[in-house]
Write a structure and sequence with these properties.
The protein contains 14 helices and nine strands. With 365 residues, the chain is of the alpha/beta class. The protein has one domain: Glycosidases (TIM Barrel), CATH 3.20.20. The chain has an eight-stranded parallel barrel with strand order 1-2-3-4-5-6-8-9, surrounded by five helices. Bound molecules: ligand 9MR. Ligand 9MR binds next to loops.
Length: 365
């Protein structure tokens, strides 16, 4: 299996192999065996203990910063380019593709055994003016499809999952799509068109819908996305995963976050926390987020939106797991513990679960 393919879920692999020689072969071969003591000292290895990944957003321009790259390679086994795969970078003028900045990140990932999430193919933001000024549907459809096909082809076999469409739903109570050139010129069907095009471009890649403020189950926006995914699954539109960005305020996730993840997973998609950051990084708020994912079998991984507070887009909110100097913050230990990893003093303390609701209590899978 090459580095970029979907990784095995070691816990399940071992469970099915117990009693056979396969288990011994696994261990001897050095495959990620679920030895909680040997392989749980970092976020990535702790997450791998339950078959999940732990990732971060990465900026190509910071790879030369040794504090940054040391933390990246020690702690994280999935990478999302923070800006480098967006349309304004990858196709700044029609038909002129620029993959240089993203290639630097993908090459880094390849050299360090990290997988990639592709972010993002179709989004109303960071969209060049030449796209947003198109008014003809046939032109826009062919431009959108060519963009998807060209970018996915360039990274074929190197990107585990793509955020095919990002943030297509409106804030507030409508539950409808937001206004965008794609929506306004192509109509409601643009999301389906994008996913069908993406599946044809790279049938091996996981295809995700990604959005923010869809973590609280009863919100109209959450319901709108849920109804879309349910409709897609019913009609065979290819969608494999839903990304919950999880840009949270100081209180962390809504009480029903686990319910939301679980309800989406029941539709037959994987779910992931894709852009996690929490104002002031309360350890409890972080632990509650991780536990919501750990409690849902199809929640396959979590990604924080940056490494150090100084790398965050949320200036002044200190929302990440490492401080500006690269030191672990209290939230780091809380996350490591919630992932089932060993903390610095060798214990696995239970973090109190205040995320609410029956059945919310985290157990080691
Ligand atoms: O972190 C990204 C920041 O550097 C960019 O300036 C910004 C531009 O819109 O995008 C940020 O990342 C966003 C992500 O791509 C989509 N979800 C919201 C993220 C935070 O704004």
């Amino acid at each position: 299996m090459s580095w970029f393919n979907e990784g095995p879920r070691p816990g399940k692999v071992l469970a099915s192999a117990i009693g056979s020689t396969a288990a011994a072969v696994l261990v001897l071969a050095g495959t990620a065996a679920p030895d909680a003591h040997a392989a749980s000292g970092t976020l990535g290895t702790a997450a791998a203990g339950s078959g999940r990944y732990f990732g971060t957003a990465v900026a190509a321009g910071k790879l030369g910063d040794s504090v940054y790259s040391t933390l990246l390679d020690r702690e994280f086994n999935m990478i999302t380019p923070e800006n480098e795969m967006k349309w304004d970078t990858t196709e700044p003028s029609r038909g002129n593709f620029n993959f240089g900045p993203a290639d630097r990140i993908v090459n880094h990932a390849s050299a360090h055994g990290q997988r990639m999430r592709g972010h993002t193919l179709v989004w109303h933001s960071q969209l060049p003016g030449w796209v947003s000024s198109i008014t003809d549907a046939n032109t826009l459809r062919s431009v959108m499809d060519k963009h998807i096909i060209t970018e996915m082809n360039h990274y074929k076999g190197k990107v585990y999952a793509w955020d095919v469409v990002n943030e297509a739903f409106a804030d507030g109570g409508s539950g409808q799509h937001r206004s965008s050139v794609f929506q306004n010129v192509l109509g409601n069907g643009f999301i389906e068109e994008a996913f069908r095009t993406a599946r044809a471009a790279d049938p091996a890649a996981k295809l995700c819908y990604n959005d923010y403020n869809i973590e609280n189950w009863s919100d109209a926006k959450t319901q709108g996305v849920y109804n879309m995914v349910r409709d897609f699954k019913a009609r065979g539109v290819p969608v494999d995963c839903v990304g919950f960005q999880s840009h949270f305020g100081a209180g962390g996730p809504p009480v029903g976050f686990r319910t939301t993840l679980s309800n989406f997973a029941s539709l037959g998609v994987d779910v992931q926390v894709t852009e996690l950051d929490i104002a002031q990084a309360s350890p409890t708020a972080y632990a509650n987020t991780v536990k919501a994912c750990m409690n849902v079998a199809r929640c396959t991984g979590m990604t924080v939106w940056g490494i150090r507070d100084s790398d965050s887009w949320r200036t002044g909110e200190n929302p990440l797991l490492f401080d500006a100097a690269g030191s672990k913050k209290p939230a780091y230990e809380a996350v490591l513990s919630a992932l089932g990893g060993q903390t610095a003093n060798g214990t696995t303390p239970q973090v109190r679960d205040s995320s609410g609701g029956a059945g919310q209590h985290w157990t080691l899978r």
